[in-house]
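Meet the record:
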Amino acid sequence: MTSSSIRKHAGTGPASDQPAAQVHQGARTLGERRLWDRAREWEARKGRIAKDSEVLSRRLAEQTTLNQKLIRAKLQGEISAEDFQTFKASITAETARINEQITALDAERSTMQDLCQQAEVQTLDLAKYI
């Protein structure tokens, strides 16, 4: 498909009835709307990430506390070596799961920040041609 046929199908540009100035203004407005929509979505997701992060931090703190209590109980002879190993394995596995989730949230946050910065740069570049 050629650029003129794309403009004709899109209803914009020289192949349509729409003046070029309106096309550029509409593109800028559409680009700005998309940027604002993405920014709003990102702000909402950042809030959810922050809440998820808080929950995961609390869960990690709980596992640390459980581990400390487990060690105390073992040292004081309150639990058997077998029970100690069972609980220790469970706490270690849960701690690893929590850390994986924290890493995933951090990666998502970083990726979204990079994408937002890239979109902003592209929008600024597009504005130079309008």
